[in-house]
Write a structure and sequence with these properties.
Blueprint: H1 16-28, E1 33-45, E2 53-63, E3 70-75, E4 84-89
Antiparallel strand pairs: 1-2, 3-4
Length: 112
């Protein structure tokens, strides 16, 4: 699938900022983050993987405590499916073009 950023689905009646924070914590295994600001939303066609158009909401978040350069994490999915293993690591913003499925499309908004 390539390199991805933490992302996921908004639960029913869940605020999108709360969902972003929840997904960030679930997928990284850490809770030491602040969501600084909302960047923008965008529609993204994920075909041919699936015939779906995703409405994506992008936030700028940063860690509030030191994190390792690289670590492993796993998401339990509330026990509903098999857990997903993640290898987490940092990349420079100027390399964000390598993110899969258009996930780096809002990087230009960070400097504003």
């Amino acid at each position: 699938m390539g390199i991805e950023v933490p992302a996921g689905t908004v639960k029913p009646n869940e605020d999108i900022k709360a969902a972003a924070y929840r997904e960030l914590c679930e997928e990284t295994g850490h809770t030491c983050f602040t969501i600084d600001r909302y960047l923008e939303s965008a529609l993204y066609d994920i075909s041919p993987m699936r015939a779906e158009i995703h409405e994506r909401h992008f936030f700028y978040a940063y860690p509030t405590a030191p994190l390792p350069e690289r670590w492993q994490s796993h998401e339990e999915h509330d026990g509903l499916t098999t857990s997903t293993r993640f290898e987490c690591f940092w990349i420079p913003l100027e390399h964000a073009h390598v993110l899969s499925c258009g996930q780096g499309m809002m990087i230009g908004k960070l400097g504003k």
